[in-house]
Amino acid sequence: MSLVRRVAAELIGTAFLVMAVIGSGIAASRLSPGDAGLQLLENSLITGAALVALILALQPVSAAFNPVVTLVEVVLGKLGRQDAVPLVLAQFAGGFLGAVVANLMFGLDAVTISTHHRTGGGLWLGEVVATLGLVLVIFGSVRSGRTETIAYAVGGYITAAYWFTSSTSFANPAVTVARMFSNTFAGIAPSSVAMFVLMQVIGGALAVGAVTVLYPLDTISLPDPEQVPTGEGSRP
Q1: Model pLDDT for residues 110-136, shown as the tens digit of each residue
Q2: Residue 80: phi, psi to the nearest 5?
Q3: DSSP assignment letter at 200
Q4: Which long-range contacts (CB under 8 A, 24 or more apart) does 56-62 make?
C-alpha cells in the first residue's frame, strides 16, 4: 500500500472526524439551547455514526485517525517507525483542517481559540479509561481476526464512552489539539490540552499491556474459511 495514499486517508479521515465532532457540537448547542444532556446526546450519536462510516470507507487504505492508535501499531509491530511519522503528522494536520472547516460551515471565524477549561483528576482519569478502552476494542478485534467489526465496535464504543467517562472521551491527541481551535460546545482550552494528551498516551500504554495479555499472538488461531459454517447444512 502506497504511503502517500495512507497519509491522504489519515488526513481526510481525521478532518471529517473533527468536522463531525465540532460541527455536531455547534449544531446541538444551537438546536437544543439550555439542554446540556440533549446536546451531548446529539454530539455523541453523530460522532459515533461518522466514525462507523469513515472507518468502513477508509479502512482498506488506512483508518486509524488517532496518533495513539498509530503508535500502538508501531509498538505491536504492525507499522514501521518511519511510516508512523508522516501518518501522525497527517492526523494532526487533518484535525486542524477539520476544525477550520467546521467553524466556517457554521459562520464562525476560521480559528477561534477555546476558553472551555477541562481539568481535574476525575477528567484525567476519564481520558485514561476512554483511551484504554478504545485501543482494547480496536486491537482486540484485530487480534481475534474480526477486523470487519472494527467500524461498528469503535463507533459504538465512542458513542457510549461520551457518557460513561467524565471527560466525554476525547481519546485522541489529534482530535484534542484540533478542538482547541473552536470556541464552541466541543472545544477545549489550550491550557487543558497537555494533560489530556498525556492521559491518552498513558491509556494507550496500559492498553498495550492488556492486549498483549488477552490476545498473545501465539495463541490466536484464525478460522479456516473452508470450515466456517455458511448455513447451507441446515437446508433440507
Answers
A1: 999 999 999 999 999 999 999 999 999
A2: -75, 150
A3: H
A4: 56/151, 58/9, 58/12, 58/13, 59/147, 59/150, 59/151, 61/1, 61/5, 61/6, 61/8, 61/9, 62/1, 62/5, 62/6, 62/7, 62/9, 62/10, 62/13, 62/87
Q: How far apart are CA 110 and CA 74, in angstroms?
A: 34
**CA dist., res. 147 & res. 17, Å (int):** 20
From the list 13, 20, 10, 8, the residue with the least C-alpha distance to 158 is 20
Please tell me the number of Cα atoms within 13 Å of 52 on its side-chain side: 13
Closest to 19 measured CA to CA, from 92, 96, 86:
96
pLDDT on residue 202? 98
**Residue (of 156, 178, 160, 177) closest to 169 by Cα position:** 160
Assigned C-alpha cell, 25: 457540537
CA pair distance 180, 172, nearest whole angstrom = 13
Place of cell 479521515: 13
Query: In the chain, what are the domains?
Result: 3-217 (1.20.1080.10)
Backbone angles phi and psi of 66, in degrees to 5: -155, 115
Q: Per-residue pLDDT tens for 215-234?
A: 987 555 444 444 434 344 43
Write down the number of H helices and E strands in the chain: 8, 0
Chain centroid to CA 32: 25
Q: Is the pLDDT of residue 76 over 50?
A: yes
